[in-house]
Structures are given as structure tokens and as C-alpha cells.
Amino acid sequence: MADRPSSLLDTRVIYCGDNLEQLKKLPDACIDLIYIDPPFNSNRNYEVFWGETKEKRSFEDRHESTQAYIDFMRPRCVELARVLKKTGSFYYHCDWHASHYVKVMLDQIFSENNFQNEIAWKRSDAHSDAKQGALHYGRVHDSIFFYTNGGKYVFNVIYKPLPSSTVEKWYRNVEEGTLRRYNKADLTAAKGGGDTSYEWHGQKPSTGRFWAYSKAKMAEMEQQGRLVYTKSGMVYMKRYLDESKGVPLQTWWDDISMLRGITQDGERLGYPTQKPLALLERIIQASSNENDIVLDAFCGCGTALVAAQQLGRQWIGIDISPTACRVMAKRLRDVCKLREDDNYWRHGKGFVVRGLPWQEKQLREMPPFEFENWAVIALGGIPNKTQVGDMGIDGRIYPVGSAPKEADNAEFGFMDEWYPIQVKQRDKVGRPDIDQFQTAMARTKRKKGFFVGFGFSSDALTEINSFFRREHAVIVPLTVREILDETIAQKLA
């Protein structure tokens, strides 16, 4: 494969399945950077908009206690440590529920000597978490544990702009003509060596100190206009504000905002634990170089993969939810303009998704809500955020050009140009199902809708025709086989 960074493993691949099983298939020491954001041990029932009921069910079953959560994560972290290069870096994103237990577990696996930082990311604005009888301070940050693996690791220093208070206090001098701000830097040093004890314009350093530069270098700086003199004749160097790199990034990250209901670039997908792209870009920029391999073993909606792709890294993603894998594949296609194509991928130009349940037998065994959302996304629609109170509508299709740039589903509510989708995971959709959908279409004043099932009874098809004659409204029946065979283009038109 062209541009392949490793002969040991494939990259630009999303694996659908249990990450523990997939990690066992990877060779030792093959990954440069690992970031994971696993479900937190919070006892919250995340209702992601595409209905990852399989992942949700696993979360509820396994994470009933902190010990159960650690028992779930330990073998996975052991495998992650095995596949990480000696020169690699590992980031574990978690919150307050189990962070201290996670830290102890990671110290045991990676060695406490390889622990580098606990990063605090301010994920939300100030708010009150107080509950009746349980008052406490507002919880506004997540923890990100940063480990390395024993070797000389990549670390690219990231700088933040100087605070305005620093600029006003330390760079209050303004150079005539250029109007460049500068501060006066001391030109003396505690240790000397060579030509550093000379007299300059009648001045010498105070007792026990030396000039920081040679006489020749001082003359060069004076010629460049970089020296400034006090009334007493003491010399200083101009340190310009516009030449400052800024402040090296510390462990408190409050400059990357959480994702809100609306984002200018349509970044928000509705996934409740979705992280900002800027957060992953920062981690990837700091701890990897171009063409390094980045792994996210709980990749959810694929933020780490998008960041890695846009920064010129290779990447591997793993997630247990088939629908999540399709959503992140769509995101890679839409945002990164990558082609999901096996032939392109073999030539180093596209990406592939492996392990998806493309067979009818597997789709029949999929949890109902997962199946519903698979069908809606396969049609290019927007699934409901929750699976209750849908009133007979499982998703919506917006004609090309009608959908706004924002990807937050709640924002679609004001738009009137859309088609409802109803999905039933049965062999034969019957007339009662069609009657229900007709009621939903009438209530929402829709004149066209789509119904997905494995098949349709003759009564159902007859009622669809009658509905058209009575109400001049169209219900388009689509079978799973037609979706899998990609023969639905004309029916969607």
C-alpha cells in the first residue's frame, strides 16, 4: 500500500467490535500515540442520538461499581500498553467518578515513573451541582492522564499567547517609529567565561556578575538597535513582544471551550460525551509527528480520527457500536473529504470500515434501536436523539440544500422541509404499521415518507396505494436488502 507507515499493521481503518479482541490482533510496540475517552463510571444512561444501545447495555452491566469499571478497563489498558511504542505516549480521559482508581491502575501498568502529567480540562462553565442533602463545589473539569512508555518520547512544546496583564506589565515600552512593544532584559549573568568582563560605554556589571554576551555580540545588537540605555548609562536589551513565543502550555486547560448546542462549523453531532476537535488537535500536535500512528480504542464519533487525519497522522479507530462506526465514517467523508473505498485505501488514498454487520442475519440480531438508527443513517437521514416519544417517526431526511450547517439535531426543528422515516425490524411490515405511520404523517403534515423493513405484507402495500389515492401522500416502502444492495437511489429521489 502506498504511503504505508508500517509494514506490521494497516492504518486509516475503523474496526467495529470489542476493542479488547481487536487490540490482541495488533503487534507489539506499533503505535506512537494512544488517546482513549472510555465511558465514565458515572451511572448515567447516555442517550446518544444514534442509540448505541449495545454499548449502553455493556456500560450498565459492567460498570455498576468502581471495581467493575476498573475490572473492565484493566485488560484493555494492558493491551494498550503492549501495543504502544517505547517512544510513544498514552492519554486517558476521565472524570471525577473513578479518576483516582484509574490513576493507580495506570501506575501499575505503565509504571508510576512514566506518569508525566494530570491535565485538567475545563469542560463546562460554572454551575451548581448541589443536590438536596449533598452540597458540594461545582464540577467543571475532566482529568486527562498523560503517560509515556519508558523511552525518549515525542513532545512538541505548545505555547499560549501571553495574558493581557503580562503584556501591559512587562511590555509597556514602545519603540519610536516601529511602535513595537518591548521590555528591558538584563544583559548580565552570574557566570562568566571568555570575553564577558569588559567595560561597555563606561559601564561594568556589578560585583560578582558578568556580561551575558561577548563584546562583539553587544556591538552587533547595538547596530541592530536592540540596546536601550537608562539615564545612568546602564544598558539593557530590547525583548520584543512580537518575538515572544508566548507561555508554554501548563496542565490547566481552560482555553478550549466545550461543545454547545450550536457550533459555527457544525462540529457538534449530538453525542453527549463528544470532545472538541481543538482538544484532540492539541494532544496530537504535542505528542506525535507527521505520519505517526494514532490509536483511539473508544473512538465514539471519531473526533480523534478527524484530528489525526487533518494533522497528517496515520490513525486506527475501534468502537463497539456499528452505528457509531458509520457516523464517524460519514464524518471522515464529509469533514476530511476522504473516500471510503477499499481500492482507494489499498493505494493509500482512502479509508475502510471493518467488522460492520452488513448481512441481513446480523441486522436481524441487532438491538431494535440500533437497527432503527442504522437504517435511518443508511438512508442519509438524521436519527432521533432519544428512542422514546418519537410518535411513529424514527428519523428525518432533509432534501439537499435545506439542512443548516449546524449538525445539532435540535436545530432542525424549525425547518419544515423534511421527510419522516419509520423503521420496523420485522420480516413483514403489516397494515397496522402503515396505519400508524399514516397518522404520524398526517399529524406532522407530511406528504411523503419512507418506511424500512425486511419485507412488506400484501395488505401493507395495498394500504400504501390506497393512502396515495385518498390523501395524495406517498409512503415509499424500502427493504433492508434494497439498502444493502444500494438499489434505493430512484426511490429516494
Name the features:
16 helices; ten-stranded mixed beta sheet; alpha/beta; 3 domains; Trna Endonuclease, Chain: A, domain 1; five-stranded mixed beta sheet; elongated; 493 residues
Task: Describe the protein in words.
The chain has 493 residues and is an alpha/beta fold. The protein has three domains: 13-158 and 249-354, Rossmann fold; 160-243, no CATH class; 360-492, Trna Endonuclease, Chain: A, domain 1 (3-Layer(aba) Sandwich), CATH 3.40.1350.10. It has helices spanning 19-23, 53-62, 66-83, 99-110, 164-170, 215-223, 277-287, 303-310, 322-335, 342-346, 360-365, 368-378, 431-443, 458-471, 480-484, 489-492; strands spanning 13-16, 31-36, 84-94, 115-122, 141-148, 159-160, 173-174, 181-185, 188-189, 210-211, 227-229, 235-240, 247-248, 252-253, 293-296, 314-319, 339-340, 350-354, 382-383, 395-397, 419-423, 448-453, 474-479. Strand 21, helix 13 and strand 22 form a beta-alpha-beta unit. Helix 3 runs parallel beside helix 4 (99-110) and helix 9 (322-335) packs parallel to helix 12. It is elongated, with a radius of gyration of 30 Å. The two termini are 37 Å apart.
